[in-house]
Structures are given as C-alpha cells and as structure tokens.
User: Which sequence fits this backbone?
C-alpha cells in the first residue's frame, strides 16, 4: 500500500505512516458524545458507523475534544486496534474526518459505496491551520448558480479544509437575493434579457436568451445551515455603491447612470447615490439577509465605483453641501461607513474591497479584502486593519490556465496551477506585525465567462487545491510536490466527488474552446499577467488617517 499519509491535500504539519492497517466495515463502532457523533457520521457518509454505548471499545473510531490545542487543530492516530481523533474544537474534528476520508481512498468521496469494507493504513497526523480565513469566492451574479451547485461547492471546500464561502450575490448583471420587503426587486432586478457573446472589444452581439434566477431567503438559510454543519461560514456580499445597475432597475430614482440589468461586462455606470434614502434601502436589504444567514460578517463590496456623476446630481450635491464635503470620493467612504455602523449595531463586521479602504470607508474593525496586490494589502495592514489576501495574481480563477489555444474563453491570463502554487499568503518581506494582521486568503471565481457548473469546475480545480494548501500551511504549496500528490491521489478523489477539474496536461476535448461564439479569442492585452503587474504597481498611497478614523460625517 502506498504511503497515503504523504498524499494528503492540503499537506499536514506532521504526518507519518506506520506498518499495518485497520479495517473499517459495517460493524465498526463510533464512540463519541452525541453532538460529535452526529458531525462525524455526516462527514463520513457513505460510511454509517453504529454508535458504541458506554466506554470506548477496542476496534472503534473514538472521537473526543481536549483542552489546550490550537484552534481547529487535531490529532489522528490509526493503529491495528482502532482510530483515535482528538481535537481542540468541533472544527478540528471536522478536519480530522476529512483527512480520514482521504486516507480511505478515492471511493470514500462517492455518494454511495460499492462495498462496506475499507482498509485504512496505520499512522498518525498532528495538524492545525496557519491562518483563520481560508476561503473561496463564487460570483453567482454574472451567471447564476443553482442552490444545489452552491451546496456541492460547500462540500468541495470542506474537503480541502476551507472555512469560508464568499458569495458575490449582486452586480450589474443580476440581483440574486429575494426581497420580501421590496418584491419589486424580484420582478425587475433578478434577470436580464440576454448576454454578451464573446469580449466587448470584438463583439456587440448578444445571444437573445434571458438569464436569471435568485435565492429565496429560505434557500439562503439552508445554504447557511449546510455550511455550518461543515464548519464553513458564509460571507454574503452585496456589492455597492458601484455595480448597482440591477438594483437601479427596481429603484431608478436612487441612482445615476445605467438603470437596467446589464447583459455585458465591465464596470457599469449604474451607481447608487450616497444619500440617506439609498442607505436606508441597503440597510433593509442587508437585514433581510442577516435574518437568515448565520454569519459574523457582511461584505459591502465598494470596488470599481465611478463617482464623477455624483456632484452633477442635485440630490447628491445638496447632501454633499449639507455635510460640508467637496470630494466625491469622500462620499464613497461616507456611504460605506453608514452601512458599516448599521452592521456594527447588529454585531457584524463589515468587509470591503480595498477601494473602500482607500476612500475612507473602513471602520476600526473593518476587514479589507485586498485584490490589487501586495502594496495595498500592506498599506491596510500597516494602518492597523485586518486583511484577507485575494490578489488577482495568482488567486483569480477567471483567467486562463495555460497559453494553449484549446483553453475556453476567459478574461485573460494565464494564471497557471504553478502560479497558484506560488501564492504566499503571509509574505516573508512583511514585518511580523503586518503579517499578524493577515487573517488569511481566498481564491476568486468571477463568472463573466463561466456560464455553467461544468465550466465552474474546470476553472476552479485543481488551482483551488493550491490556494487551499497555501492558506492551511501558511506557505506556498510548491508546484512539483503538489502536482505529485494530485497525480497520485487527489485528482481521483475529485473525480469520485463528481468534480470536472481541468487535467494537468490540458483540457479534455469536451472542455476545449473550439470555434463557437462563446469560445476563446485573442487575449485582451490589458488582461495579461504582465499588464496586471504593471498596473498594480501604480496603486496610489492612501491617507491612512482618513481611512481609519473618519467616521463622524
């Protein structure tokens, strides 16, 4: 039997194989307190271990909590006499069970098992994560994902010891949240008449097919509960005040620029006005989500917001005069802070993209999600704010995975598996204090060119495996070693789990771009990795005093 302990993804801090095996079968007992037993049996599906009464018998799977360990840490020990799991908290138990499933082999990831007998290699693991925030963002606005797809991705994230699912729920191309307080949103903001074919620079053609959908509040409650069972926190995002065209289709009087659900891509002109009526509406919509999603966080977006039309609007101009504000960008920060204060009143922390930090939109406890590279992330950390690292390069999975002409249409690239495996979530060049402000990191899957679930799998995996390893271990995955583990074991696990990943040597014929209208075109030179590096270096310095203390206007 190969050393399965050397093939785990993500790699544990310490793992060693020993001689021998332990057999799990239909008669193997599970010894754990009721709450932990329920957790273990759910995660070990399709194994349905019967519960052991009384003390732990020999030959059982024994699970317990113990004091003194690191948060989410665990110890897993397999001998010929049974399996022992000891963890600091229930999340540690969850991670131990995920490691146990990997040790069982690929078939442990199938929805139903062909047999009931499993040979588990003896050995031991002592493990804990290096960062507290280990996540993935899925854009469900540009192309809607059904509830079942979201639930499946929660299982895939849990498989890789990830603990955050960031849902980008709104954008110019669709509002994906039911509103019972404002049902006009459900009628006007949740679908578009058609979708742009190809890239805008080459085409102004649309497919003529309506696209839409939204999650009911009951759906979001279900997603939240399903995530919690797997130790994952849902991070809902309503992206405002920019990217607001879809919302303005229902409330045109509250915005400037476009007031219809867009079918094309890019930065739309539809922007919510920074006025009290708009803030009140957003707070009501936020409350509807927070009433059903159990989360300590709410992401307000704040990125890519054109502000030049605000001073030209009489209502905005009057409000700016009343506040004594002359800089439109300062109103961007005002808008975010108003909603951030509302969130604080509910005991929730605001998250913003890094533009929100630069415009003065951050409160003292705001989390800054930094997508424009190391410089802006370090600025936020130096300002005393906690950051989540999500740089375009190498965590954006809407980019090509290679330069092969067979890759399907994407926004640009490439960002390869090797690039993602180089992700340094805790940069060595930062000071210890700055690294201490890094909560962790995540990958992003923007969906302009990812129309369906199969394409989502292809673009996300196995690059997500590299990011999962970086945020779990606190160091880059290492391309050669990760590739070895993928080839020898982990791709088979993904396949058994039903994930249509991209093969390491290039796409299958049915995954290739071909010659159709939605397939690959010449890359936009603005979207190459070289252009990204040149652009991110131009991110301006920020007035730290404004961004951290300007809260009273």
Assistant:
């Amino acid at each position: 039997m190969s050393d399965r302990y050397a093939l785990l993804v993500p790699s544990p801090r310490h793992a060693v194989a020993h001689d021998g095996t332990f057999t799990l079968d239909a008669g193997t007992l599970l010894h754990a307190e009721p709450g932990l037993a329920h957790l273990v049996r759910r995660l070990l599906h399709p194994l349905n271990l019967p519960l052991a009464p009384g003390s732990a018998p020999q030959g059982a799977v024994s699970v317990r909590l113990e004091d003194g360990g690191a948060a989410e840490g665990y110890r897993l020990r397999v001998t010929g006499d049974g399996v022992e799991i000891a963890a600091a908290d229930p999340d540690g138990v969850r991670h131990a069970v995920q490691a146990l499933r990997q040790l069982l082999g690929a078939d442990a990831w199938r929805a139903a098992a062909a047999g009931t007998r499993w040979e588990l290699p003896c050995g031991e693991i002592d493990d804990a994560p290096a960062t507290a925030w280990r996540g993935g963002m899925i854009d469900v606005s540009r192309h809607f994902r059904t509830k079942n797809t979201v639930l499946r991705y929660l299982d895939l994230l849990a498989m890789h010891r990830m603990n955050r699912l960031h849902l980008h729920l709104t954008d110019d191309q669709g509002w994906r949240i039911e509103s019972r307080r404002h049902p006009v949103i459900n009628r006007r903001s949740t679908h578009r008449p058609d979708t742009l074919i190809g890239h805008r620079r080459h085409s102004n053609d649309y497919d003529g097919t309506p696209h839409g959908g939204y999650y009911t509040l009951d759906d979001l409650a279900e997603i939240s509960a399903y995530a919690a069972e797997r130790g994952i926190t849902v991070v809902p995002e309503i992206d405002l005040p920019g990217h607001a065209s879809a919302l303005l289709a229902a409330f045109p009087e509250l915005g400037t620029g476009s007031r219809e659900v867009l079918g094309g891509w890019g930065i739309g002109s539809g922007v919510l006005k920074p006025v009290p009526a708009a803030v009140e509406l957003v707070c009501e919509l936020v409350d509807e989500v927070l009433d059903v999603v159990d989360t300590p966080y709410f992401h307000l977006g704040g990125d890519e917001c054109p502000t030049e039309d605000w001073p030209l609007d009489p209502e905005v101009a009057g409000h700016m005069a009343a506040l004594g504000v002359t800089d439109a960008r300062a109103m961007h920060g005002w808008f975010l802070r108003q909603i951030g204060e509302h969130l604080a009143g509910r005991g929730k922390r605001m998250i913003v993209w890094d533009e929100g930090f630069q415009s003065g939109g951050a409160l003292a406890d705001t989390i800054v999600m930094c997508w424009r590279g190391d410089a802006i992330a370090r600025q936020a950390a130096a300002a005393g704010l906690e950051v989540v690292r999500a740089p375009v390069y190498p965590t954006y999975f809407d980019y090509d995975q290679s330069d092969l002409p067979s890759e399907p249409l994407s926004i640009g690239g490439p960002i390869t598996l090797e690039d993602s495996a180089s992700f340094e979530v805790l940069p060595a060049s930062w000071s210890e204090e700055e690294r201490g402000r890094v909560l962790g990191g995540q990958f992003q899957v923007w969906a302009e060119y990812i129309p369906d679930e199969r394409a989502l799998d292809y673009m996300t995996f196995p690059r997500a495996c590299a990011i999962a390893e970086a945020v779990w271990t606190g160091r880059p995955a290492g391309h050669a070693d990760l590739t070895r583990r993928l080839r020898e074991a982990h791709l088979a696990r993904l396949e058994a789990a039903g994930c249509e990943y991209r093969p390491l040597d290039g796409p299958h014929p049915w995954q290739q771009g071909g010659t159709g209208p939605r397939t690959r075109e010449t890359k936009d030179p603005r979207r190459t990795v070289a252009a990204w590096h040149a652009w991110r270096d131009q991110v301006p310095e920020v007035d730290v005093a404004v961004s951290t203390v300007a809260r009273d206007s």
About this structure: The longest helix spans residues 328-345. The first strand starts at residue 14 and ends at 24. The two ends are 66 Å apart (CA to CA).
